[in-house]
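Please decode residue identities from the backbone states below.
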């Protein structure tokens, strides 16, 4: 393997599993390692973007923070796919609901990730690219959730470059196109996966609703995030 360690990841060859769970928050990665994994080894501390490898029900799995926004997950996922031989990245994140039928605590799986980002420009495509999840991972996630009696909503999500946006109408326009929820990374992850010939999926928990202003308490957040983590671990 060439190019490792990277400026952002100090892991050595073989230290990262074929499947990586990737929350935005590195402390959520630590939470998963502490609460779900056995025989844990921390492989990255560069910029405090913690990465851990351990076993879950006997399977080797890694979990690493990806940061906030597409430039950040763009870097970490690119390096994992291209330099660390990772095959699958499953983002597990929080999101704001923007569809009427989406409520707090819902688990939304991004079949597609629309975006206002220019990440795709690098590919010089003669049209508009549609970033999509890997179907096999998507199907497995839905099946695992069904078995665990956890409701999921599958559809289009928005990966936004902005958390605070001056255009108050923007979310209403995406909502009119049946986009379910807004987060900030999936589209870049899906594009990096496609370009690398690898697999990606984004599973989200609705932590707030953009139009109603409703938001989860800290305790609620932890419990519902656990459902999402367990779906991801199940399919890892
Ligand atoms: O909870 P995470 O995974 O960080 O995801 C969401 O939360 C952050 C914004 O608060 C953005 O990264 C957004 O995508
Ligand atoms: O990106 C995000 C994440 C949670 N809630 C939002 O409104 N946006």
């Amino acid at each position: 393997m060439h190019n490792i360690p990277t400026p952002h990841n100090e892991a050595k060859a073989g230290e990262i599993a074929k499947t990586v769970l990737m929350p935005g928050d590195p402390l959520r990665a630590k939470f998963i390692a502490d609460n779900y994994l056995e025989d844990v080894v921390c492989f990255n501390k560069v910029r405090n973007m913690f990465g851990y490898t351990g076993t879950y029900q006997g399977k080797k799995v890694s979990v690493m923070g990806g940061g906030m926004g597409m430039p950040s997950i763009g870097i970490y996922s690119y390096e994992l796919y291209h330099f660390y031989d990772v095959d699958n990245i499953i983002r597990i994140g929080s999101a704001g609901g923007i569809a009427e039928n989406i409520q707090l605590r819902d688990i939304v799986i991004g079949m597609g990730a629309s975006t206002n980002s220019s990440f795709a420009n690098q590919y010089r495509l003669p049209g508009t690219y549609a970033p999509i999840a890997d179907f096999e991972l998507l199907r497995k996630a839905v099946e695992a959730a069904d078995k665990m009696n956890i409701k999921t909503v599958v559809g289009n999500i928005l990966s936004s470059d902005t958390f605070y946006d001056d255009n108050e109408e923007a979310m209403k326009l995406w909502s009119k196109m049946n986009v379910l929820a807004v987060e900030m990374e999936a589209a870049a992850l899906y594009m990096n996966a496609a370009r690398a010939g690898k697999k990606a999926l984004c599973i989200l928990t609705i932590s707030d609703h953009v139009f109603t202003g409703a938001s989860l308490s800290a305790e609620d957040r932890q419990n519902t995030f656990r459902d999402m983590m367990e779906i991801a671990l199940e399919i890892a």
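Observation: Helices lie at 26-36, 70-83, 135-147, 170-176, 186-196, 218-235.
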